């Protein structure tokens, strides 16, 4: 069961994990919009660390405004992100 | 910490060179490295994500100086050595 729905606003957690991760540095801490869920996949971070039974999570395609990421550009950038990489943005924008 | 591979959106690397009619490999050894990695992943010697991690663990100066498939070979050697499957020489 996917936690986030298409159109929801989310923020990428501003983490900087020690090992392998699939969160590009350029989206950390940034807000985006859920486009769609791509199904459940084993968490790459745990697979890379050799965890015997890595957890599986929904993976979402998240769209970001290029101008938010780099200060310019009228296009969107989409990145596929595991659920634990992102959090819901509150109604008050916090 | 962010690793040397994570350069998305970073300037200073120059334009991407788009090669017309680019072949899958530019030398036979590259095809062998590609095949070797596929066999090792499919036989469960290591996972694809462990391979990616091994590429990213390269020393930054070595990573930046290496070609794409040189990084692959470095990662394969790293993982086989760590599993005791590859010795010196």
TrEMBL record, chain A:
<dbReference type="InterPro" id="IPR008990">
    <property type="entry name" value="Elect_transpt_acc-like_dom_sf"/>
</dbReference>
<dbReference type="Pfam" id="PF02211">
    <property type="entry name" value="NHase_beta_C"/>
</dbReference>
<dbReference type="InterPro" id="IPR024690">
    <property type="entry name" value="CN_hydtase_beta_dom_C"/>
</dbReference>
<protein>
    <recommendedName>
        <fullName>Nitrile hydratase beta subunit domain-containing protein</fullName>
    </recommendedName>
</protein>
<feature type="domain" description="Nitrile hydratase beta subunit">
    <location>
        <begin position="2"/>
        <end position="87"/>
    </location>
</feature>
TrEMBL record, chain B:
<protein>
    <recommendedName>
        <fullName>Nitrile hydratase beta subunit-like N-terminal domain-containing protein</fullName>
    </recommendedName>
</protein>
<dbReference type="Pfam" id="PF21006">
    <property type="entry name" value="NHase_beta_N"/>
</dbReference>
<dbReference type="InterPro" id="IPR049054">
    <property type="entry name" value="CN_hydtase_beta-like_N"/>
</dbReference>
<dbReference type="InterPro" id="IPR008990">
    <property type="entry name" value="Elect_transpt_acc-like_dom_sf"/>
</dbReference>
<dbReference type="InterPro" id="IPR042262">
    <property type="entry name" value="CN_hydtase_beta_C"/>
</dbReference>
<feature type="domain" description="Nitrile hydratase beta subunit-like N-terminal">
    <location>
        <begin position="1"/>
        <end position="87"/>
    </location>
</feature>
């Amino acid at each position: 069961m996917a936690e986030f729905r298409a159109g929801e606003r989310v923020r990428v957690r501003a983490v900087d994990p020690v090992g392998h991760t699939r969160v590009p540095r350029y989206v950390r801490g940034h807000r985006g919009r859920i486009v769609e869920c791509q199904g459940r996949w084993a968490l790459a971070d745990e697979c890379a660390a050799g965890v015997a039974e890595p957890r599986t999570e929904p993976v979402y395609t998240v769209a970001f405004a290029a101008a938010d990421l780099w200060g310019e550009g009228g296009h969107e950038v989409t990145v596929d992100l595991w659920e634990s990489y992102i959090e819901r943005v509150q109604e008050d924008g916090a | 910490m962010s690793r040397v591979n994570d350069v998305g959106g970073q300037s200073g690397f120059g334009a991407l060179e788009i090669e017309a009619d680019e072949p899958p490999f530019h030398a036979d050894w590259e095809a062998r490295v590609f095949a070797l990695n596929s066999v090792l992943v499919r036989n469960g010697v290591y996972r694809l994500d462990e391979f990616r991690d091994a590429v990213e663990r390269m020393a930054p100066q070595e990573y930046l100086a290496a070609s794409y498939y040189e990084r692959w070979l470095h990662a394969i050697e790293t993982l086989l050595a760590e599993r005791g499957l590859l010795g010196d020489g």
